Description:
The structure holds 3 protein chains of 3 kinds. Helices cover 23% and strands 23% of the residues of chain A. Chain A is of the alpha+beta class. Chain A has one domain (6-76): Ubiquitin-like (UB roll), CATH 3.10.20. The radius of gyration of chain A is 20 Å and the shape is flat. Chain B is mainly alpha-helical. Chain B is 69% helix and 2% strand. Chain B contains 12 helices and 2 strands; from the N terminus they run ααααααααααββαα. Chain B has helices at residues 3-24, 37-56, 58-62, 71-96, 102-110, 127-148, 154-182, 186-205, 217-222, 230-248, 273-283, 287-320; strands at 258-260, 265-267. Chain B has a two-stranded antiparallel sheet. Chain C has a single domain, classed as Ferritin, core subunit, four-helix bundle (Ferritin). In chain C, helix 4 (93-114) packs antiparallel against helix 8 (191-208). Chain C is an all-alpha fold. Chain C has helices at residues 3-25, 34-62, 68-74, 93-114, 120-148, 152-169, 177-184, 191-208, 231-239, 241-245. At the B-C interface, helix 3, helix 4, helix 7 and helix 12 of B face helix 1, helix 2, helix 3, helix 5 and helix 6 of C.
Amino acid sequence: MKHMPLFEVFIRSKRGLDHTHVGSLHAEDHQQALEYARDVYTRRSEGVSIWVVKSADIVASQEGDRDSFYDPMDDKPYRHATHYVLPEEVNNM
Amino acid sequence: MSQTETEQSKTEQSLEREFQARVDAEEKIEPKDWMPEAYRKTLIRQISQHAHSEVVGMQPEGNWITRAPSLRRKAVLLAKVQDEAGHGLYLYSAAETLGISREELLEALHQGKAKYSSIFNYPTLSWADIGAVGWLVDGAAIVNQVALQRTSFGPYARAMVRICKEESFHQRQGYEIMLALSRGSAAQKAMAQDALNRFWWPSLMMFGPNDDHSPNSAQSMKWKIKRKSNDQLRQEFIDQTVPQIEVLGLELPDPELRWNEERGHYDFGPIDWDEFFQVIKGNGPCNRQRLQHHIRAQREGEWVCEAVRAYENKKRGRKAA
Amino acid sequence: MNKDAIAEYATRLGDDALVLGHRLSEWCSNGPFLEEDIATINTALDFIGRARMFLSYAAELEGAGRSEDDLAYTRDCREFKNLLIHELPRGDFAFTTVRQFLVDASNVLFFEALCESSDPQLAAIAAKSVKECRYHLRRSHDWLLRLGDGTEESRRRCQDALDDLWGYTDELFAMDALEQALLDAGVAVDRVALKERWLPLVSAAIDEATLQLPALPALPGGGREGIHTEHLGHLLAELQFVQRAYPGLQW
Lengths: 93, 321, 251
């Protein structure tokens, strides 16, 4: 256990869906991490595909970057369909 | 106070306000968010306690895996205990997002600094105890865990959702054992009654002390780490369990259990809190045994971990060469 | 083919799975770390599941109204027909790993062959088992490399385990009159033929794990005749305790 690196586990629950983060586990290498992920996170056939990534390899956006990362997106409502008003007749576009 | 310190504490205050506003708005707190140090500490304490409970809880039930009375029961019990291990792992995972390692968490357990649920310090003496543990102990745990699915810390809440989904079979398999026994021979029924009598009170203690003796509760409720009080949860558990005892046709384990029309709840007799605090302090029937078992297993596994590490280093060396 | 002979064959295979599944289940809460506990229990569950399939089929063929549990819980030592390698105490993690590797490698070959059995029920159980066995072998093979080629201590433990176990492997490839007759009828697997494929596979892995292939003689065996080690009696005392203390009840 000691010093074995931490891996994040992502599972595709069925074909057509994205891999979703489900949790983490400790293993010595990627192969072992995959096998443990199978035993730990798919005991009830929850998955058709598993990804494992070393937790240390994940680069995450910082809470402090929030303003510069996400706020600039808030003033671009033209990216959303609801921004455009169409006549009733073509309501379902 | 220097100017920068004043500024710092002002920022701290505004961060704390922002944090509390987010909690009040039922938004989840995620690992990288700013959080009060005390919130982080409380979470680490609670999540690790929960994780340790799952893992130490493998012992009293594991005690009967090799003696389960049918192959189906044996498979079910194995799968259940495996789930406990899995749940322990989900919870260690959640705790690790708070910047503490599993070794540190286990170290705290071994040194007696971290607690686990007092219920697992009681022995499982008969096969009926496995029924009682599944039905009552998992039943009590589920009442607690259903509430925790809405806890404010994201990784903890998500682990709880997963755990609750998987645990639904645990209580049922326990109750099924109790049903088979209470409809069986006189000896089986007596075994079931005895298990109920022994596990009833410790199960009620699982929810912790009365609200007015629970020092951390108010703050935890404000932070929405805890969603319902100890007494509320205990009452919920009693209300749902008494009718199940009646279906089994067993005697109530507490002569004072009585439906109170006015309150809309069952009244129950006084809990022996002295016993509870004795067990918490380490003086329960199995405290030492449980800890020593866990420490022994880890010590016996050390050479395995060393081998894995050495092999991995050699492999890396060969790749580099 | 004679039903009784197939029932006996299914009982043997069921006992192999039950006894080793029981040994694996003893690891619960005793593994080196949590991930491994969970993985070992998965393997144990596969073995117990397989035992149930074989034993309930044996009981069905027997037609005496017995169940899988009657077979598992009310037979005594001399009536158990598992091969001895399965019943040896779990030992340390190296012993368990080496035993699993030796047995898994043999099981993959055995169940691949049993998939071709003319008995549809045996073939169906084999088809399910073979998938499990391949995964088990992958796991135990990886562990053999890690432990064999790990530290001095882990290599020593593995070599000790290998030496202790080696004499019991011969029995995995022994045929008796019953299995020979079933083989002639297209029901059973030719164990003798498996050994030619098992030995190179196992030798290569042992070599890769920097371990020595033991030059040790085969031990007497006797599991198929109910001649066991002293360990089985204790295993059964535990396994059967409740059924023996309260006979004839439903649980």
